[in-house]
Amino acid sequence: MALDARRIVVATRNEGKLRELVALLAPLGAEIVSLATLGIPESSAEDAIESHETFEENALAKARYFHALTGLPTISDDSGLAVDALGGRPGVRSRRWSGRDDLSGRALDAANNALLVEALRGVEERGARFVCAAAYVDDARELVRRGESSGRIVDSARGSGGFGYDPHFLSTELGRTFGEATAEEKGRVSHRARAVDALCAALLDDRARPVDQAGRRG
Ligand code: ITT
To answer: Which residues sit with their C-beta closer than 6 Å to ligand 1?
Structure first.
């Protein structure tokens, strides 16, 4: 069961996230399939999935939804930016913060980033965290793990790597923005890397445990 199954769906519509998740899930040694590969068209029902107040609940809801749809073990991530001076906002609303439902991809990122710069105009306190909850759901179990990464918000965009708020997030650990970082650098210290590493460790640990005659792991 579970990780003995060799195909895992990565349930995201975000191209930037998908690239990162595929690389981070390599330790599982499974075939990673995207929603696009499975030919699952985006539906308006998906909008309602992430309506919870925590990253963990949203990640689990997303993984449950696509597991029910595909019948395959499914991994999802719910993530966002929590800015200290904004009381942790935009948080779980990071993607829709600008309210620009008419935009997607880079154009939506640009609208969100413009709002971020505007919201912090004249504000000295620049501390922020990226947060990610990564969830796994199959027929038998559900797991969720959280990861965080600290930094500060810079007014001028730096670098064109990554996606979302990356060009404005100066990573404490890297000393450069996630937009300036290589994929490998971001993959060492990011919120997503930490959540997914913890998720993979839990899944692999579980897989290592012996299975009894009833198929349960000891
Ligand atoms: P899926 O739900 O389809 O996975 P999404 O983009 O809607 O894609 P979320 O609901 O988790 O995903 O929203 C995450 C938003 O938070 C994302 O759109 C970015 O604006 C921001 N974000 C999350 N992780 C980020 C990262 O590593 N770098 C930059 N921005 C990030």
So the answer is: 12-14, 17, 50, 78-81, 94-95, 112, 130, 162-166, 178, 190, 192
